Amino acid sequence: MADMTNSRIARLLLAGLLVAGICAAGSYAQSRDSSSEQGAAGEPYPQMPSVAPIGVRTGKYMDVPASAQGPAVDPAKGYRLQDLGGGLYMVTDNAYQSMFLTYDRGVVVIDAPPSYAAHIPQAIAGVSDKPVTHIVYSHSHIDHIGGAKSLGERPVIVAHDETLRLLKRAADPNRPLPTVTFSDRYTLRVGNKVLELSYHGNAHEPGNIFIRAPAQRVLMVVDVVFPGWMPWRRFALAQDIQGYFAQVEEIRKMDWETLVGGHVARTGTHTDVDVQAEFNADVKQAAATALASTRPGEGLNPLDKANPWAGFDNYIDRVAAQCVNTLTPKWSSKLAGFDVYVWDQCYAMEQSLRIE
Ligand SMILES: [Zn+2]
């Protein structure tokens, strides 16, 4: 028995090394003809996608297409300021994005990513000598607002009710609690400037709001659309996948010219949102087709028959592999990071379609 186990482990390791060796050579492709034995213990599946699965490291990920790149950040400054018009500015380190709005007596800061929040006062000082009077939180996540404390104790912090609830629970001194909250809509008027805050339900996480600057025709929605890029893994860790799909459609229908998505190296256009919606529809279709055409238990090692977790893992892996294979020809060169997260998107979509 011990020998059998050892020999199986040895075969698994060998398969792992084989995969690693293929990946290091820069092409994971290992599709085999359909007559090869299916699901033998320790053997990779037939028709495995050319994109490396989760957990398998490649020598080099696919190149980032020009369409996903943005203006360079001056390394000496550590941030880039983009004038969005009407006293509204985007601050970015080309990985995170936040905004601030200047008015006659002060400045409203919208999000403070800790990666560059220390530079926000300097960025403001370049265009205004007024103090920060308000902070708006897009949502509770630390990677977007964890630098708020470094902007000093502010009298007014505006956020959604759910963000207050989550921040009370987090009890993080770097994320001071909101002092003004709302459940549906809130219009923030400062001087003669306006920000329209609205809530469209759970998608990325409860309390994640839309921030619209109507005069500047700018919409900021964080962690939903990633211009030029794949969404972060599992549709940006959306807590509600169907809600996430619905929010992409809402963003699409709204009136704006510039989208600030909270991430990546550039702002977005309506075309970017159309592309994301098309990708979402394609993932949904690919996962639905794979679910309908994949038979549970097929190719499962008979020795694993009494292990239901193994049975599901085998089934779900084959669904995801088919989903990835379907998407790769159209999307691998169209969205940056396709190879990084396509498996995650297919797993998330499979799960959502199968049980929600
Ligand atoms: Zn987030």
Structure description:
This protein is of the alpha/beta class and 356 residues long. The chain is 36% helix and 17% strand. It is built from nine helices and twelve strands. The strands form two sheets. A seven-stranded mixed β-sheet has the order 1-2-3-4-5-6-7. Strands 8-9-10-11-12 form a five-stranded mixed β-sheet, with no helix packed on it. α7 crosses α8 and α8 packs across α9. It is elongated and about 70 Å long. The chain starts with a helix and ends with a helix. The N terminus is likely disordered. Zinc ion binds next to loops.
Could you list some keywords that capture this structure?
five-stranded mixed β-sheet, binds zinc ion, elongated, single chain, disordered N terminus, 356 residues
Sheet having the most strands: 7 strands, mixed
Radius of gyration: 24 Å
Compute the number of strand runs: 12
- Taking all residues together, what is the mean pLDDT? 89
Q: Which band does the percent of strand residues land in?
A: 15-25%
- List each distinct ligand once: zinc ion
Tally of contiguous helical segments: 9
Based on secondary structure, the structural category is alpha/beta
Low-confidence residue ranges: 1-27, 29-36
Strand arrangement, major sheet = 1-2-3-4-5-6-7
**SSE arrangement, N to C:** HEEEEHEHEHEEEEEHHEHHH
Oligomer: single chain
Backbone shape = elongated
Helix content percent band: 25-40%
Our measurement of the CA-to-CA distance between the termini, rounded to an integer number of angstroms, reads 42 Å
